[in-house]
Amino acid sequence: MTADPWPPRGLAKPAHRALAGAGIGNLKELARRREADVAALHGMGPNGVKALREALAAKGLTFAS
Length: 65
What we know:
globular; 4 helices; single chain
């Protein structure tokens, strides 16, 4: 089994740093977070949130409710 690609394609470096600073290091950890909380991270923009949403969907995951 291969690991999920991290960071997802299309994710800018500031967004990647924001995730790392929040302790999010893979898609399963990301799926435990609410989209609004991830979007509020310093360095995370709308394109980053879109890339994360698409990466989650590709693995059958979603942001937490």
